[in-house]
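We emphasize that the prediction below concerns an isolated chain of 373 residues; any contacts that depend on oligomerization or on bound cofactors are therefore not represented. The input was used exactly as deposited, without trimming of termini.
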Amino acid sequence: MDSGQTRTSCYEDIFAPAGGPREAPTSEWIAQTRDLLAECVIDSTISDTPFTTFCSGGLDSSLITRIARPEIAYHCNYSDPECNETFFAQQVVQGTGIRLFVVNAQESFDLVARLADIVEDFDELSIGSVILPLDDLLAQVKRRYKVILTGTGGDELFAGYARYQLALGECYQDSYRGLYQRMREIASVPDRFEFTHRKGDPSLYRFYRSEVEKTFAAAYEACRSRDDELETMLRFDRRHFLEGLLNIDDKLSGRHSLESRPSLLHQRLVRRVLEVGTATFMRNGDLKPVLRELAAGRVPRPVVHRNDKMGFTTPIGTFVNRASHLIRERLMDSRFSHLYDLRRLNLTAETKFSREVFGLLMLDLWLNRYAVR
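Result of the prediction step, given as a token string:
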């Protein structure tokens, strides 16, 4: 009998720890996995139409670009030196015959109107400011291609986020000093990890209830299989955070009638990487030591040994400050303004990378478009 109810079940948790003992990778394991990685990337190029790659200048997309060898690889930057990695992307394609198409992301625009337009197609709530440069990049890609290979998932698979170090009480990058100082009074690793996932002060939202923090804690503990905090953090990000990133890729690619393929998440490669012990993923303060070994000899050394990778960095705080009057107007007139404690919120950003006001604006735009009152 049809009850009208739906049920969700997990066919397989591919990110569950592999059975049996896990140890540091041997030279033989590295060589075999290097070959497997190349096979998986090449498999992801199979298409009825030509493909391209995203080449950010970081290790993940650089490795994919060097293996796949597209005719053209796409790169996006801002004029701000702290949001510009073109130098490294150029090194990746140098001497390969690959042409680098550099997209200069928009810097002068009505932030409110532009985000409202993206929300119209995106139709889900996201506070990732990466949607702005990614939208600019894909708008250029679609003029020539239908398929783009991305490095999405590399940070979750190979432990590429500084938050793992911060949660374990260590700080190796100057750009994270401020966050590290704010976390020093937090005692436990799970609580520090939760803090790194926050995008601002949640108490600014009148509907916020502190009990929801138990949801994060429960999800974190559900990822624990042994007394290994790094493994638990990795499983959490692979299960939950990565889902959000793939959703952004999928929605924005769809907005531009493109197919994005996360080449590093081929299931054969994922299963292979999970064979090694968790301690292997952070070594002597270095992130992604396993992927660095896999990339050695294929990607230029300056890119392999970078420790200052920015990510797809957006000066969102700068854009917020330029549009602060428009944002204030929007929020004050919103039919959902009663949900926000606007008296406590300074509608300008503290730094060029502050995302608190951006997150509030995205929430309001989404509520006004999709929420039924």
